[in-house]
Amino acid sequence: MKKVVEGSHAVSEAVRLCRVQVISAYPITPQTHIVELLSEFCSDGSLNAKFLRVESEHSAMAALIGAASAGVRTFTATSSQGLALMHELLHWASGARLPIVMAEVNRALAPGWNIWTDQTDSLAQRDTGWIQLYCEDAQEALDTTIQAFRLAETVFLPVMVVLDAFFLSHTYEPVDIPDQADVDRFLPPFKPAFSLDTAHPAAFNQLSPPNVYMEMRRDLQDAMEAAPEVLEHIEGQFQSLFGRRYGALEAVQCDDAEIILVTSGTITSTCRLLVEKLRAQGEKVGLLKMRLFRPFPYEMLKRRVLRARKLAVVDRNFSFGACGIFAQEIRAALCNEPKRPLVFGYVAGLGGRDVTTDILEEIYWTTKTTAHPESESVWVGLQQPAPAA
Amino acid sequence: MTHAFVSQVSTPFIPRSTTTTESNKTGSWRFLQPRYDEKTAPCSAACPAGEDIARVEMLVAQGLFKEAWETILQENPFPGVCGRVCFHPCESVCNRGAFDEPIAIHTLERFVADTAMRYGLQPQRMALPPKSERCAVVGAGPSGLAAAYFLARLGYGCDVFEARSEPGGLLRWGIPPYRLPVPVLQWELEHLQALGVNIRCNHKITGGFLHGLKDRYAAVFLGCGHYKSPALGIAGEDLSGVEEGLPFLERVRSGDLPSLSGTVAVIGGGNTAVDVSRCALRLGAKVLMVYRRRRQDMPAFGHEIQMAVDEGVELMELWAPLSIEAHPDGFRLSLQKMEVVSEEGGRARVKPVPGETTAIVVQKIFKALGNTAEEPWLEPPGEIAPHILHLADTVVSRREDGLVVVYGGDLAARSKSVAHAIGSGKEAAMALDLYFRRGWDAIVEETARCRVGPGPSLSMEIYTGGDRCRRNPHVVAFEEINTDYFLYGPRIIQPRLLVEERLQGFSEIDLKVSAALAIREAERCFNCGVCNQCDNCRLYCPDVAVCRDTSPQGRHINLDYCKGCGVCVVECPRNAMSLVENETGGRP
Amino acid sequence: MIEVRFHGRGGQGTVVASILMAKAFFQAGYFVQSFPLFGVERRGAPVEAYLRLDTRKILIRTNVYTPDHVVVLDPTLLAAVDVTRGLKRGGWILVNASAMPEEPATFASFRLAVVDATRIALKHALGTRTHPIVNTAMTGAFARVLGEPPLEAVVHAIREEIPIKPQANIAAAQEAYEAVVFLRPSVAGGTPSLALADDSSAAS
What we know:
The complex is a heterotrimer of chains A (389), B (588) and C (204). With 389 residues, chain A is α/β, with parallel strands linked by helices. In chain A, 41% of the residues lie in helices and 18% in strands. Chain A has two domains: 2-242, Thiamin diphosphate (ThDP)-binding fold, Pyr/PP domains (Rossmann fold); 250-379, Rossmann fold. Chain A is built from twelve helices and 15 strands. In chain A, helix 2 links the parallel strand 2 and strand 3 (50-53). Chain A is globular, with a radius of gyration of 21 Å. The mean pLDDT of chain A is 96. By secondary structure, chain B is of the alpha/beta class. Chain B has four domains: 23-38 and 531-581, Alpha-Beta Plaits; 49-123 and 484-523, no CATH class; 134-227 and 376-443, FAD/NAD(P)-binding domain (3-Layer(bba) Sandwich); 230-370, FAD/NAD(P)-binding domain (3-Layer(bba) Sandwich), CATH 3.50.50.60. Chain B contains 20 helices and 21 strands. In chain B, helix 7 (105-118) runs antiparallel to helix 18 (515-523) and helix 12 (271-282) packs parallel to helix 13 (302-311). Mean pLDDT of chain B is 91; it is low at 1-8. Chain C has six helices and seven strands, in the order E-H-E-E-E-E-E-H-H-H-H-E-H. Chain C has helices spanning 14-27, 117-123, 135-146, 151-161, 166-179, 196-199, and strands at 2-9, 31-36, 46-54, 69-72, 92-96, 111-115, 181-184. Chain C has a seven-stranded mixed β-sheet, with helices on one face. The longest helix of chain C is centred in the N-terminal third of the chain and has 14 residues, at 14-27. The termini of chain C are close together. Residues 197-204 of chain C have low confidence and may be disordered. Chain A binds chain B through residues 95-97, 154-156, 193-194, 198, 200-208, 212, 215-216, 219-220, 222-223, 226, 229-230, 233, 236, and chain B through 1, 3, 5-6, 8-22, 24, 544.
């Protein structure tokens, strides 16, 4: 059924449809609306889940690690400082191979105190062993959340569903909310491969000396490497039930493109308009949407972009002392290719600054008219001189 | 679509044992071993009647009021009486006092008894099979009735001889109704009689009585109390109108309420003096309590003195009576000023201040100096001899003809209180049973085994082999309580009549408390040393070595896996567990 | 695509007004997008909310800079905020007011309508005299001013979105729909109607 819902609530609806059993969360803007609605679902009985209120995000994740270890389906949501506080336990969740799903609403890290969108919080967790999927709109947030449980429970890795603060989380738009029966068909009840069971006691997460640790890490990486293929398989089933498919990456008019704009999150949506406009003007421009960031889809990326001359990577994030993180990863993915496009890195929209079609257009024309990248990252839209705080 | 990935990732390689951890007998690491080791709460050790207070409060907190009542009845036939008149030494040693405020044990005892009375509960009969020996009890006061109660429970037939028209002794005749309404006593007496105790009133015993007893009785308990007031030894004390305190209280109890006016002097500082003062106040007099020492030296209970002062009794401390003379307005009472010479055990020694005297004119004088035995033959023998045992609250004497005479109650107890009298009766019953069943020589050793904590209070439950036998006599100290598990909370305030309401008559001063308040108060109790099934030991055991079972303890420790870390002992909030050296000598 | 900006104060239901209109237009067959001014909301402070509607999927996910119309829920804002900021020539300004005695000079190039939503809200016991809840009345009035969506769609949206006093809120919307006073129904060079079909092909 199509309804006008808030982006956050689209995620909540998905969690309800997935019949999650344990939810634990600590409120933080802009994530709060997701778990607020879930707590309403728990109290009105429309979701039969245990909602654990905890004193911090660290505890929220710890509680889910316990619950998931006992073999139930779990969910949490957080943002920014909350995610940073969870950091230690993010490693634990993946290392213990627990299929926890978390909605992560991108918010800038403080200081300066800022509640607006910025991907640095989630991208800073790239090495924690979590699968990361970035969403473009509310429908995709809902669909990705449903897919995330299936993916997590297949490869036994936790999944982060990432969405932009406000531009997605607080925006109302029409969303097709699937039928429960269809979701049940797509996502059967969680059957853990292992779980805490007092009838069959086993030691979990005990000392793992050098003679086994490395193999465990390799096993985790094997699961990561399998994830893109698994996602593709899952999306095939999803499409047959719901008629929608997103892919690890989406290439828009890339086949003959000389310049490909590479985006993630809601910027992608706005960028689609720009590509339409530039194509109408005869520009050979394409758009590559990065949905799956971890595992990084190296081969898929190469297949889509190697024919282009230039890539313009738009990063709403930054790794200090280096460059935009998507640009960094894409450069690394392409560096051994004998014939590869030049990678132009642009940083825009940090801390929630609006990335308008004008800014995206400026990025395109700068890329087109510059022969070679002048630096690792070009910051777009900076005010000169800098405004007073 | 191939499913290669499924086999690749369906069994993630995580740090998890592939065999059951049950094969790892962590118990082999153990050199210390926890065990359930219930201990003694300071309150119960301090209770002259040896009540299992920590357990009573635990049951109240669980709403198990009948069970709480029956637990008290194990040790004391008079919870309704003691919940009103006991001086509750339990509260002053309560470990909770070091945390915030002591548990209101006194109030809760009364609550439990009142609840049983309100619903007309009948206790589980705890009597043992009948025995052939029959016992006589002289005096139906608290000690005699307690002796009869415990003897009856142990299976002995008992005849209680009471000089007055109704049983109860001091409870009926000496304690005014504003402290103890008669129906409460009556109800508890009915339970006692239901056990088969035969009370013969209007049956005064004389010295010759003991001689003819051997044919009918194997033993006699003398609990006639101290009713004889000693002389002041001053001129004029025999003047008509100078009255004894106890007979006055008896008159008040019988409903003969003289109208008093003007000033009344009460000479003495014991509980009788306080009760006489407060009764006189209610009958219309202005009351002066004249005492030769200081207020803090008075033998009366401090809270009773305080209530008397609140009601308007005036204390004249450090004044000793010199003489009494008739006076047109009543009497002229001459007084000698005293001063403190020294203190012994907190009590002042005093001597007259030369030349400092005064005289007051009063309309009436009551002497309430404390009492002694009415007849010399009622005094227990003082000598040390093989046929005489001086126990804590009794003196047991075996006559040549085989009759055993036990002196109890005020005649022999450490202290003159209702609770001590009850303890004395219990000690007598236990000593007699031991004598009949195990012989004279078993008495001292076996009663020692049944003391609560270090004693001298005794437990009948321990004597009869109840669960309380498992208690370690170690008295739990405050430092041994894990106070992390307790929240600060105010002590219940005993609701009382206002002073103006009290003075209008003899209505009971202390009012009832609600069950909700009683439960809240009982929940404050640490339950020192007593397992209340909180299950912390099981929840915290890192080896899941604490297993539930159907034993009285409710759980046991699986020594195959207990590695002796002691977490259970530390997390026991109430020191009901102990860590001991491996009972199996290192390797199980 | 049409963009609408709602002006109100924190606590007046401004964001809900934009959501109601989004739901009503969605009911009427449009693609919609509604969002508040992203920030830290405080009661009484000027707030804004936005509405986009189109006959195709709305791809743009940026702030609204050049609205086609504005709705002002609180007339006292006119002195504090330039409600015409970025407003396209000929766009509607709908103000909650009984009349417009001193029209700001900046209003000259826009169409202007008023509705006494405060009176209507109080009549239907919505909010208090100091804090009337005017958002549902304003949605009814706005549907009248634009000629779309049909009043039934607004009623439908209120029923779906407003759990408290739905009947009174619906009645307020219906009354406000009838009570709009068109002070300047047209301006030279202004857009005469919704005209969604005309600019749906243009990319922002």
